Amino acid sequence: MIRRICIALLLITLGSPLLADSKITQAKFAELQQMENIGVRQFKKGKFKKAYEKLIMPAEQGLKQSQYLIGFMYLRGHHVEQSLVKGLAWLGVAKEAEVVDWSKTYETVYGLATEDQRAELKPLQTLYISRYGLETQQLECLNRSKSGSRRLVIECVKRVISQTKPLGTF
After folding, report:
1. Structural domain total, the chain
2. The domain spanning residue 138 has which CATH number?
3. Could you read off the pLDDT of 137-153 as tens digits, one per residue?
4. Which residues pair with 141 in a beta bridge?
5. Phi, psi angles (nearest 5°) of residue 126
6. Residue 74 falls within a domain, yes or no?
7. In the chain, pLDDT over 90 holds for what percent of residues?
8. SS3 at position 145
9. Is residue 87 a part of any domain in this protein?
10. Crossing angle of helices 115-132/84-94, nearest 10°?
11. φ, ψ for residue 154 (rounded to 5)?
């Protein structure tokens, strides 16, 4: 009986992206940041399919700029089916970075939502934060102005990064 429980727990652990992905290596995190940079460039060029492909994984790993842009893509229907609820849910996770403009965008769009959309949003945003938020992804994000510019740069770093491969990898 105990053996079956242990095997079940092991299978759940190996199949859970939350547990495996929260312990990524330094190299994998650098790769995610590079994917985000490429995705941002594609987004700015209006190449939304390529942008989405590059941004979704970093967004799911907690990178805030990716989350914001994925949310914006849902709000506008760029390469994804337009959805105010999904867009707001992603923006809600991204605003953990405490970027004033992002929070203003969230509040403005939230003000346009119907009561039904707001009711649908609450559990989805809670789910996204539990999966992709700062605490779950073990991230700390800092906002700083780019040298010689008023442009804001959001830097996210992993607090605890495993130097070994996560469970379930070979």
Report:
1. 1
2. 1.25.40
3. 888 777 766 666 666 67
4. 156
5. -60, -40
6. yes
7. 58
8. strand
9. yes
10. 40
11. -105, 120
